[in-house]
Amino acid sequence: MKNVQISEELFIAIMRYFMLEQVELLPQIKQGLEKKLDAMVMRELYTKYKTAPTEEEKEKARKEYLDRRGVPESFRW
Predict the structure, then answer these.
(1) How far is CA 65 from the centre of its chain?
(2) Do residues 50 and 69 touch, judged by C-beta distance below 8 A?
């Protein structure tokens, strides 16, 4: 299983939420975890694009990566 790094700020918010029961931190924690998940997905797509065994898989991963990045079709190669 891989390790995942989060910012110190997010870690402290999670600790305060669970240890001190500061429930007002929940929206901040959710936002930070969603941001981290998006970054992980983007990295996975980029890695898949760079290491795909076939051209079809490579192109599919490249397209999905660029779609998620928000790059318009007219700007792509």
Answers:
(1) 12
(2) no
* Per-residue pLDDT tens digits for 4-16: 999 999 999 999 9
Q: How many CA atoms lie within 13 A of 14 on its CB side?
A: 11
**Per-position DSSP letters for the chain, written without gaps between them:** -------HHHHHHHHHHHHS--GGGHHHHHHHHHHHHHHHHHHHHHHHHHH-SSHHHHHHHHHHHHHHHT--GGG--
What is the model's pTM? 0.76
Q: What single-letter amino acid sits at 3?
A: N
Residue carrying the six token digits 């975890």: 33
CA 55 to chain centre: 24
